[in-house]
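Hi C.,

You asked whether I'd gotten around to modeling the 143-residue construct. I have! Everything is below, sequence then structure, no commentary in between.
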Amino acid sequence: MKILLICFSAWAIAQIVKFIVGWARDHEINWSYFVSSGGMPSSHSSTVSALATSIGLIYGIDNPYFPIAAILAMVVMYDAAGVRRAVSRQAFILNRLMREIRLQKPREELGKELWELVGHSPFQVFIGAALGIIIACIWVLLT
């Protein structure tokens, strides 16, 4: 149960930081940052790095669960900065094309715009991972 709480804390803190960063950047409150993927920092990275770190600190790195969690963390972080980032770029381009089509044919029904904030830059993934590691260390060392 402790590891689950550590992971949830890492996710929640990352989402709160993401909300604050979005508010500071946009100068407006956007409540969707509390539950959205993408943005700074990566909450996926903070969650899986907190998982691997807490397992390593509590049970040791020789425990068979640690390499499973570490590999899961690597896959999730690679996906966040690779595949999902590519999806974000594609959504940006498609939204731009749809706006241009709407200007030429205003009655054309093209649907809603795609969500562009899906993936992460490598820096956002790194900060998310660092946040997860720090949160796990604080939890484990203080309890």
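If it helps when you're writing up: The longest helix spans residues 2-26.

Thanks,
B.
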